[in-house]
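Friendly challenge for the regulars: who can give me the structure tokens for this chain first? No prize, just bragging rights.
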Amino acid sequence: MNERISTRVDNAGGYVHAGNGDFNITVGADLQDSDRRPFRSMADDQLGRLQWVLVAPPGMGEARHKLADTGTVILDGPPGSGRTATARVLLHEYQHDTGVFHEILPDDEDELSLSNPALVGAGDRLLLDLSSADTNRWAAARAELSSLRKTVHEQQAHLVVVMPHENALEADLQYYRVEVERPKGLQVFRRHLRLHGLPYEQNLQSDPIVTKCASDEVPIREIADFADRVRRAREAARPDEGFTQWCKAAQAAHNDRRAEIATRMTEWREGPQRALLLTVAMLHDAHADVIHQAAELLLRTLKAPPDDLPLLQRKDLAERLTEISAVARPDGHVRFTELDYDAAVRTHFWDHMPDLRPHLNTWTARSVGLPDLHDSRTMRDGLVARLAGEYLRTRRGESLAALAENWSATPTNRFQLEAAVQALTCGLNDPAHGKLFRRRIYHWCRERQLKGEFAQVLVQVCADVIATNHPDQALLRLYYLARRERGTDRARQALCELAATSSRLRRQLLDRLARSALSDAELNIFLQTCEPVALTAPHDNSCALVEENAVQQSVIICWHAVLQKMPRTKWHPYAQRWLHTATNAGRCSEPLLDILVSAADRCATQRGTIFAALYASARAAESTAPHGAEQAATTTDRLLQKISTAQGLSTTASPSTAAFGGNTP
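First reply, four minutes later:
Bragging rights claimed.
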């Protein structure tokens, strides 16, 4: 369903399917305390909506059985058959408590190779969309598919590959191939209308426009767009208009109106008139009061001379709206009388008045702070999305990214920060520009000296947008932000929340920490990440992370750095929680204790002191142990035995004189 690349932004709300050195972040309350939902919840909601609207194409049943039997299916089919949507829905059907949805992007510079076992976690749902890959890229992917399938099988995960249509496929992979066919256009149209809430009996009406616009020759994406235009035509229609009129309006809105707008512009020559025209196009369906304020703000931004006429002699807003083919509805909201006229007006101003663009950027940043827009997040996001849509339509993604950075560098209010988040979201969700924006954000997070509150914007974009479909990439970007942030723990919190959604992501973060210089910021990341309950929870065939050799080595390295570099007052609460968990962790108790002792044993000249401090923490932990002091005392004794063994000493002597070489805490 996403075969054809295009950019279009209409009445958008929320997310639209449209350097070295330290930096300080001042976290704005509303961005920090925003109503952000869990990463997996957002991803699964998107997939759930897609599942609701998808008309199952012929072949989907076979693909479903193949995926259930083998954990892998390779989808083939002609462009426009809904291959990618089908792939996503198939994976959504395997939503479980473990694993995350993950779209694999082998061409991105920070993505793991397909043959790397770390790419797949237990229960993950992986999408490898190569529907538009060229011959070389498809050949390279095929060479690694066997390794990827093996890892998927071992992790009880599920993989759906969308292959380029009618391309080569080796004999050993043919078994996994399933061809899907295009569903009936009319079924697609009716399903979308039902999603938009149109009464079922209206969907069944026969109409020649529907027959043409929803025929089996029309790409599915265009049918979905047509259904959306019918929905919007219905919302804008008069009470006496019905399904036939809605379809006519939807068809007319699809026509190329560039010549028409160019002709009308010769009639609209006055500055205030054009300012109102552009304002209505950018804030379509906003309240008349907002339109009036924003139009006046646009004139001031352009430094237009004020109107010298006395107030009562000026044209009122209703007359001015009529002149530009717009109207204020009974509820006070303003829209053009013809469907999608706003998009045509925006296109004309952007394409034929390029000198206006920088002023439009400034006006948008100021407009989101207008008092009457404060309570309308949907309208603010829609305004930014329409501006972003023009950048993306004309393939100026780099300029849009720079604009978001500029808005964040010197924000005048929190709404400007939200606007920067929305602008980057539009770029990330655009099929033609998503890779560019992910790459740009990667370099911002890793290398750039970030100004103002841009780091806060990047944290939210990584956590709320990139993490939805690309959690590995979000993890890496948040890691780079977290290890450089000062004066806040916003990036660290987001990083740890993301790592907590998947054992694979937690393992990946621990490995990266162990391979780093382990600065103070990275030690704080580790202490928050090394949650012992999560490390001892079974995640893969009843195996826990702490039982994996690689994870043990990573944690030992990090604990060693903590014990050696941090004061005991800082690490003591974390060690206590570690020891509390070891008291009742079953077979994982021994690895937890072994890790602490091994980490302390690496402390060279400080070894005796660190051992003594660990023992003292264990004794102190007994009084607060959730499973009782008696069990905790047993854990302390086991810890002492391991310390003595590490020291090569007898456990019969007293702790202070034997195990710690005379050093007492």
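The longest strand covers residues 72-76. The two ends are 66 Å apart (CA to CA). Your move, everyone else.
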